[in-house]
Fold each of these.
Amino acid sequence: MKRVWVGVWAVLWGLGFAGEGLWETPLPLSKGVYETPLQQDSILDVHAGNAVLSVPNNGAIGFWSSDQMLGLGFLYPGMAPNVLYYGSFALGIDASYVADAWYESNQIDDRDFRPQQGLFHASPGPRNSVEAVWGTFDDSGHPTNPQGIVVDQLAYAYDHPDYDDFIILEYRLTAPNPVSGVYVGYFMDFDIDAYSQNEAAIDSTTRLAYQWFTASSRYAGVVLLTPTTPANLSVLNNPLFVYPYVGCPDSIQIKFLNGTYSFASSWQPDDWSVVVSAGPFTISSDPTIVAFAVVGGLSASDIIANAQHAIDVYNDTTLVGVSETIDHPVSFRFRVTPNIVRDHTTLNFEIPSAAQVAVDLLDPTGRRVQSLNLGRLLPGRHQIGLSLPHLPQGAYFIQIRDASKVLGTQRILKIQE
């Protein structure tokens, strides 16, 4: 059954993220304040200056589910085509307990994580980031062995040119009763252009596992930001570990999470995934913090350099944060609410300078099906309503452009009453 959640406007007062790191109430900001109303949804996009990642609140990464009906995936560089087939955050102790959203046998997605609330969005975000998305899910969907683990998820990104090739995702894990031996990781099935001709490798110095397609010079991967000692950095051969089961069984996933299976590089061009994990941890009422970055690059040296930038910006408050040594000018910002549409949606955007602005609605082939000329708009925030009752159901893209270029693109899903 297709899952469709319709987002609602909400104002967040006191989420209660008390604890280590960035988890305060509701989030610390070194510049600006939270805009209201805040968006609460089941999946939201986080925009770095050179990358976009869709973040659901069910433990998946890039898309709500592997059918790719909701989400953009990971767009890199800029608004280039998606390079992520499907990914998932994962917890694991042994074969009886792996909690994730990746595909299980017969390519039926695991639904071990259940959202406790919708996602919230704010711009700007913590530590001078351009925007942030956060929410909470737990492992109560595990069919046989839930552990009572609650996961607070925070994703944020930058538009500064030194830090715009990645999105940071931080997780705060708690449990009412101690749960020992827990591994925390990412399973990411990147499909970069010709997916069956991808290659993969790890870089232990930057705690990076990544994939690439040589002909297009596009690279994508995952960095472990904290802790600094991985349990595993590995490539995963899909024909060997996924195809025979039409998914990846928990009995195999736990061996990648704990490092029993570990492969440093691909042995031939093929269909690959990557795994990055940490642990084991004891999860208790005292929060455990684990953080990753989804990162892109245009060569092996470039993605490794970008991975190091992600580590630097996450750990060093002299780069961003309270010192405010980086000045972020107002940039273009764009949100569509709701992004699951019956007959009407609202465009909220901000432009840094006066410009001639137009809005285009595109079908999945890129054909323009509707256009709206807004004329010359002054700098600042603008809100435009868009009616879509005549369109058939399906995915569409909304683009905002000025006289010379596309400023931003958002994906929406049109559904019937």
Amino acid sequence: MMNPDQPRILLSGGGTGGHIYPAIAIAEAIRKQCSEARILFAGAKDRIEWNAVPKAGFEIEPIWISGMQRRFTLSNALVPLKLLISLWQSFRIIRRFKPDAVVCTGGYVSGPVGWVASKMGLPVFLQEQNSFPGVTTRLLAPSARLVFTAFPQAKQFLKVSDEKVVLAGNPARSSISASGGTSGSVGGKPVEKQNPSLLVLGGSGGAQAINDAMLSNLDTLHHEMKVRIVWQCGPKYLEGIRSKLDSDSYSRLALTAFIDDMAKAYRDADVVLTRAGAGICTEVMIAGKPAVLMPSPHVAGDHQTKNAEAMTSAGAAVLLKDDDAIKELPALLGSLLKDAKRLKKMSMAALALARPDAAAEIASAILAELGVSQPFLEHKIVKAEAEAGALSDSSNGKSRYSEMKEIPNHSRAAV
């Protein structure tokens, strides 16, 4: 039987930062709203979550799982074995930890954990970051208690009733917020707020197209345009890029495989050049940063292009295709960095799209479904009811969160 003062929550998601950081954000929000909550993660030892979760202050248990490669490899041959072992590991973790709820944020590791949890009769909650849901979300959705989405388009791809789908936005790291530039250090190299600044993000694995465009135009950006550059290129690209550069010739360049303090990186940036994954787009919006988005053409449902188009149509970003990047990047960045008024408008547009309370709202909804009273949720319900001009009928037997889901969309934060 669940102790309402100490709910036990198991979270699973990973493989990329786009899956694990929303999970961490939800966990942080749960801990903030219910300090006695017991929280545990399940993830793969060889992926980003194995280091990111402990850094965030949470425990993690291993699951041996990986996705299929597009060509035949030994890893592919091991997938059936890994799947069987991951199901057994998931069962053991759940039996030992005895969670009251399981939260899955996508990635292959979520599959066995969510499936076993549902078969054991546990409430499963899903959080989908993209407009086109990943395969794990699509498979687990029919047995989930609630599916939290970031884009309204995602609902049409899920075989669930409308009541199960909650448009909540994407959870972002709690440290990310809107603020101006500052001086600091990224990648061990000091950066000063004197010249216009560019933050280049390739995601946790790096992005070759972005790296190629930067390498081809680095002299123009650094020497001629005098741009300060913080360039997160990804671990597998770092040494190759370093071998092509004379670091002494680029005093305003901080090249790094990965950035731990993203809040500082965003604060220091005037413009962000990045892929258009949902997690990065969410952070850019919350930080209020103008963006040049290069959507990856190699993702399911071309969802990154859809993300980029949504931000571009709102005036918060500029879309740049991979094939055009090498040729057009300097002129595009030059026009943006010289136009303070346009940057301000783009920043305001990004903030208008942001949903900074997403993690808190998702955490509150999960705890409310478990019967844990939540001051944050009650505040949002009362505020929404007041703005909607009508109080919900508290005698209809519905949970307080069910009432909030039915409040008109204009009374909630815009996505």
